[in-house]
Specification:
The chain is mainly alpha-helical and 179 residues long. The chain is 53% helix and 10% strand. It folds into two domains: 45 residues, no CATH class; 93 residues.
Length: 179
């Protein structure tokens, strides 16, 4: 609330506010009654300079560099966390248990063949004899497992960069609000 100085005939200055417009006040120095002018005539009075409090200060906008850094952090957090998260989602939702090794697969296949009835073993032998079986044949999910294992360092790197970028974004927002 702004205050103004109302001069008295004795030379004293009485602090008044716009809410006191049109009233009569008593001078604290001489005791004489002084009329406060109307709101229209307050411009003729001298304003009292006030020390600005932190709440009254206008917030200065954050500088351009801080805004650019905030945008870069947000964009990199979205990109890296999005791509790393997509890689992790594909890995976690892959329909085959990737903890099984190729040796486990072949030992289970051997056991299945050993427990196969003779007619089924004969049919399997005929299929292998006519179509051939490559020595390096492995199911597709083992190739996918190798691809996942090769991509794992990239996934962890993307997720780490994304997390650091998200933290940087949050810190830059907090710094921008402090200014």
């Amino acid at each position: 609330m702004s205050l103004f100085l109302l001069p008295c005939s004795c030379g004293a200055q009485i602090p008044v506010s716009r809410s006191q417009a049109g009233m009569s006040l008593q001078c604290s120095s001489c005791g004489q009654s002084v009329d406060v002018p109307t709101v229209r005539h307050f411009s003729s009075l001298q304003p009292i300079p006030t020390a600005s409090s932190p709440a009254e200060e206008t917030a200065t906008p954050p500088n351009l560099l801080l805004r650019v850094l905030t945008g870069i952090f947000l964009l990199s957090a979205i990109c890296f966390l999005g791509y790393g998260g997509l890689m992790a989602y594909e890995r976690l939702t892959f329909p085959v248990d990737l903890s099984k090794t190729e040796e486990d697969y072949y030992s289970e296949a051997r056991k299945a063949v050993e427990n196969m009835p003779p007619v089924a073993a004969w049919d399997t032998w005929n299929v292998i004899a006519y179509t051939g079986l490559s020595e390096i044949y492995t199911p597709d999910y083992f190739q996918m497992k190798r691809a996942f294992e090769a991509a794992a360092p990239y996934m962890y790197t993307y997720l780490t960069i994304g997390t650091v970028s998200l933290i940087g974004f949050i810190v830059s927002i907090v710094l921008a609000r402090r200014k």
